[in-house]
Amino acid sequence: MATQAEVEHSRKTFGWAARDTSGILSPFNFSRRQTGETDVALKVLYCGVCHTDLSMITNKWASSIYPLVPGHEIVGVVTEVGSKVQKFKVGDKVGVGYLVDSCRSCQNCDDNFENYCPNYIMTSGAKYIDGTTTHGGFSDSMVVEERFVISIPDGLPLDAAAPLLCAGITVYSPLKYYGLDKPGLNIGVVGLGGLGHMAVKFAKAFGATVTVISTSPNKKKEAIEHLGAHSFLISRDQDQMQGALGTMDGIIDTVSAIHPLLPLIGLLKSHGKLVMVGIPEKPLELSVFSLILGRKTIGGSLVGGLKETQEMIDFAAKHNVKPDIEVITIDYVNTAMERLLKADVKYRFVIDIGNTLKSSS
Amino acid sequence: MAKSPETEHPLKSFGWAATDTSGILSPFHFSRRENGPDDVALKILYCGVCHSDLHTVKNDWGFSTYPIVPGHEIVGIVTKTGDNVKKFKVGDRVGVGVIVESCKECECCQQDLESYCPRPVFTYNSPYYDGTRTYGGYSDFVVVHQRYVLQFPENLPLDAGAPLLCAGITVYSPMIYYGMTEPGKHLGVAGLGGLGHVAIKFGKAFGLKVTVISSSPNKEFEAINKLGADSFLLSTDPAKFKEAIGTMDYIIDTISAVHSLNSLLALLKLNGKLVTVGLPSKPLELPVFPLVMGRKLIAGSNFGGLKETQEMLDFCGKHNITADIELIKIDQINTAMERLAKSDVKYRFVIDVGNSLSTS
Asked: Is residue B270 classed as helix, strand or coil in its secondary structure?
């Protein structure tokens, strides 16, 4: 007998889903809607594996709806467009990121910041407007409202483009919003994983002097020689941190583990900005004094709006900003999740959906 | 042999000082420098009592060196000017605020942001560049470099104007810097004391809708009827609090006790700004989730530079903004400090130095 997921829409779809909080992914038959008049249907070729996928499949935030098909760093090729679609045609290379819809009428949507719409809809694991659950890019196809589809320029390899759709925009957006995109600034990047390595690359492309701040001394060689960071600080080394006090215009903090803020605030020049893009699950200790004495700011940021995501992709293509990826087969995804939990990847897994996701039926 | 406070400088001075962490103030003889070519000497008429004075005399922040003559909301009359002083003349009504010196060379000083100079000299409890310590405005006169002296607008009363020199600039500066001046926007003011009540007045002068956020229900009547706030949110009322979630564009947080940032962040709209100007003596807890999900920010601000302090005073002169004060004599200062510790003042004590400080 067919499951609800298989019959709630009319387009048969296949992917891998987590069934429960163990987070183990396995083949999953479901369905997607037919292409509406403003929809773009695409065959998925690649999908990046974001730490958020891992958190969602293990129900870290106690809000996951199972079965859950993760994946919101999706790249593919258009197979069908609705009658009112203007920007895309069959055969175009496109991407889909963290959102597949928003209210489209609030101030934030009007300002092209759909990511701050109070009613935005996530690409995976969210309730869609018709009551069904959204399923993400660990699947063979997607059907997405045109506004939430990104054009991938020629010159960007499709597999490497995938992580830009979440990791890329997550660091690009705050670098711009908080004014940290001017040439000649000193930018710190805390944490060297998927987000961190993208922050290093974008900050360098903006003309900044970049320092990586990390707890792992063994990341230094890669940070400097491969990613091109100008310097590297071990955050637990008091002397190193002391030597860099008051030197940074901005810091992008990608770390989601609990960690001390005071040393990072100390690295900022006066009027400096610490931007949080990781989400520790407990509050962090904040010395208000340390913000007051230097008129410093701590801000947050969440992915980006669609207009700026397109801008970011175009910028990445023009300036050759590409994520460092490890391409895997769909069968490897559970092992990849275990490795991701231990931060054992340089620096993003990307699933070769097009060549390895095959329905068994 | 090290010189004593009475002999280290040539001019005899008299004030009230705290000599230990009890914070009790008593008469104190000390000395001040002679006017240099860039200095202004002023006879002190009034001095505001800032909560920082209380924190310092009790060594709450751990860096007090006794004896301490507090006071950095100083107003008075110029009695002498050095040869290089052109902006002031004898008889001028002037003020002195939180700092009396800075390096004048760093990027912050060059941009008129002396409050962020890495080598500031505070008006009291601070080592001066010659190694002697600074003494503040609970005293008969002070000698200050002209750069750190403010001209007082003619129409502003000196007593009610004194608190502007710290409380005033402390809320004015971040309101300007963080763009909290767009008419029609919604400002929350957390805490209703010396800083909070002035923030309401500035907020209204900027054309903002102002809501006071407080845990004291008995402050509501005054907040609305006397200070002109548009509404009052009792932070301990869960139902009222829930209604207010996501309604404020900015919040000035003046609370110096340990308190919940999570609640204040929840009151902000998306892209909202929370600026803290209170100085709790312990760290607070910062939830990162609301910052990320709503692109909100939390920031600090520290009084202000001298140029913007003058701007702020001129703004107050134009809009007739002064503090609401309770005038006291110098020998009432210890009682005033006890009452300040319980927030029992509407909303700033000001010492009538000119009429009550005399060597006995």
From this structure: strand
Q: What is the dihedral of CA A297, A301, A307, A308, to 10 degrees?
A: 60
Number of Cβ within 10 Å of residue A129's Cβ equals 9
Query: What is the predicted ipTM?
Result: 0.90
The verdict on A182 and A151 lying in the same domain is no
Residues B350/B354/B355/B356 CA torsion (nearest 10 deg): 70
Q: Rounded distance, CA B155 to CA B90, Å?
A: 19
CA distance A295 to chain B (A): 5
Same domain, A178 and A245: yes
Tokens of A94: 């496109």
CA angle A157, A160, A165 (to 5 degrees): 110
- Give all domains of chain B, ordered by start, each with its CATH number: 11-166+323-352 (3.90.180.10), 167-300 (3.40.50.720)
Q: Which H, E and C letters describe B95-151, residue by residue?
A: EECCEEECCCCCHHHHCCCHHHCCCCEECCCCECCCCCECCCCCECEEEEEHHHEEE
Same domain, A175 and A245: yes
User: In chain A, which among 254-293 make CB contacts under 8 A with chain B?
Assistant: 261, 270-271, 276-280, 283-293
pLDDT computed for residue A4 by the predictor = 81
Q: Which residues pair with B44 in a beta bridge?
A: B76
Whole-angstrom distance, CA of residue B324 vs CA of residue A90: 70
Range of the domain at A262: 168-300
Locate the chain B residue with the closest alpha carbon to A171.
B292
Q: Report residue A340: phi and psi, to 5°.
A: -60, -40
Tell me which residue of B122, B125, B136 sits closest to B76, measured CA to CA: B136
Q: pLDDT tens digits for A148-167?
A: 999 999 989 999 999 999 99
Q: What are phi and psi of A17, to 5 degrees?
A: -130, 155
| CB neighbourhood size of B122 (10 A) | 19
CATH code at position A250: 3.40.50.720
At a CB cut-off of 8 Å and minimum separation 6, what does B53 contact? B70, B71, B72, B136, B337
What's the pLDDT tens digit per position in B177-221? 999 999 999 999 999 999 999 999 999 999 999 999 999 999 999
Alpha carbon distance A247, A240 (integer Å): 12
Collect all residues of chain A within an 8 Å Cβ-Cβ radius of residue B274.
none
* pTM, full prediction: 0.92
Residue B1 pLDDT: 55
Secondary element (H or E) of residue B172: helix B167-177
Q: Does A340 reside within a domain?
A: yes
User: Could you tell me if A176 and A145 lie in one domain?
Assistant: no
In the numeric block, which tokens belong to residue B55? 């924190």
Closest partner CB to B300 (pick from A280, A288, A301): A288
